[in-house]
């Protein structure tokens, strides 16, 4: 497969709610705008189609061949671009829980890759936030890198960001661009979001594209925002702190190779250190 050396990525920032119709319509409008701005790939945030109040069950759930994926697959085909559906609640046949699932669509509207969130956000921070994702969500079990004409695209979702071994595994499998669609909490985000994104970019010498939820979704849930794109040197090359919209950046895979050749830390990894981990 021939890989494009340079292309434009867009990362979308949204304030999703429990209104699926409104969320999908808003996502489609933002994708159109980003494509008109020149994006070859547009990435939506975690829970773009449905963000429920914390503690409520997930009454909206969809199959991968359901209406939401079909509608946005049609949009990707119309616009002739890659489209990352940051995540949506995927129905598990015969079970009450869902997967938190990211779907990468190709420019013909086809499903290129499917990733189910590996690490579930079960936290009780005293005086801060209490979210128990595993009450309604089942964990995935597979690391996913999509081989595309835009390069190796490594998929992850939100809380995965705190587990560097996942991103090293993605990089070893050929990922050149790492995606982190998220709904990072307003409590942890100001302190952890950007440092962790830059760390994953620096240690893997990879592009990081992080579309985010922002603002107040309902009385019990608010997200930090700060959608960014980070280059393989750890520089933030595009950033949107607040409000809905998108950012774009030129992805340069040749520059990434130059960085990796000049500072070949990926060649120096001591894999033997992980044998007993």
Rg over C-alpha atoms, rounded to the nearest angstrom: 18 Å
> What is the total domain count?
1
What is the global morphology?
globular
pLDDT < 50 runs, ≥5 residues: none
N-C termini distance: 36 Å
CATH superfamily: Carbon-nitrogen hydrolase
Biggest beta-sheet profile? 7 strands, mixed
Number of helices: 5
Structural class: alpha/beta
User: What is the CATH architecture assignment?
Assistant: 4-Layer Sandwich
Helix content: 10-25%
CATH class: Alpha Beta
Number of beta-strand segments: 17
CATH topology: Nitrilase/N-carbamoyl-D-aminoacid amidohydrolase
How would you portray this structure in words?
The chain has 277 residues and is an alpha/beta fold. It has one domain: 4-Layer Sandwich (Nitrilase/N-carbamoyl-D-aminoacid amidohydrolase), CATH 3.60.110.10. Helices cover 23% and strands 31% of the residues. The protein has helices spanning 20-36, 67-79, 164-172, 189-204, 253-262; strands at residues 6-13, 41-43, 82-91, 98-105, 111-116, 122-124, 130-132, 137-138, 145-148, 151-155, 177-179, 207-210, 214-218, 221-224, 227-230, 236-240, 245-252. Helix 1 (20-36) packs parallel to helix 2. The relative contact order is 0.17.
Short description:
By secondary structure, this protein is α/β, with parallel strands linked by helices. The chain has five helices and 17 strands. Strands 1, 2, 3, 4, 5, 8 and 17 form a seven-stranded mixed sheet that branches.
Q: Main traits of this protein?
A:
277 residues; six-stranded mixed sheet; Nitrilase/N-carbamoyl-D-aminoacid amidohydrolase; 5 helices; alpha/beta; globular; seven-stranded mixed sheet
């Amino acid at each position: 497969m021939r890989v494009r050396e340079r292309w434009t990525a867009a990362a979308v920032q949204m304030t999703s709610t429990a209104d699926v119709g409104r969320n999908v319509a808003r996502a489609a409008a933002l994708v159109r705008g980003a494509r008109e701005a020149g994006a070859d790939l547009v990435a939506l945030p975690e829970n773009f189609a449905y963000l429920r109040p914390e503690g409520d069950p997930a009454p909206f759930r969809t199959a991968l061949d359901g209406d939401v994926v079909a509608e946005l697959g049609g949009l990707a085909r119309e616009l002739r671009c890659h489209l990352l559906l940051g995540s949506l609640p995927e129905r598990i046949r015969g079970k009450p829980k869902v997967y938190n699932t990211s779907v990468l669509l190709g420019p013909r509207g086809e499903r290129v890759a499917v990733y189910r969130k590996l690490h579930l956000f079960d936290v009780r921070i005293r005086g801060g936030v209490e979210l128990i994702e595993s009450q309604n969500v089942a964990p995935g079990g597979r690391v996913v890198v999509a081989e595309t004409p835009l390069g190796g695209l490594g998929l992850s979702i939100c809380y995965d960001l705190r587990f560097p071994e996942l991103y090293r595994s993605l990089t070893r499998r050929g990922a050149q661009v790492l995606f982190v669609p998220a709904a990072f909490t307003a409590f942890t985000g100001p302190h952890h979001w950007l440092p962790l994104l830059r760390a994953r970019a620096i240690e893997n010498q990879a592009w990081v594209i992080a579309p985010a939820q922002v603002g107040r979704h309902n009385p019990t849930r608010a997200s930090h925002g700060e959608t960014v794109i980070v280059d393989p040197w750890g520089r933030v090359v595009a950033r949107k702190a607040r409000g809905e919209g998108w950012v774009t950046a030129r992805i340069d895979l040749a520059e990434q190779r130059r960085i990796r050749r000049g500072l070949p830390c990926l060649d120096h990894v001591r894999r033997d250190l992980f044998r007993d981990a």
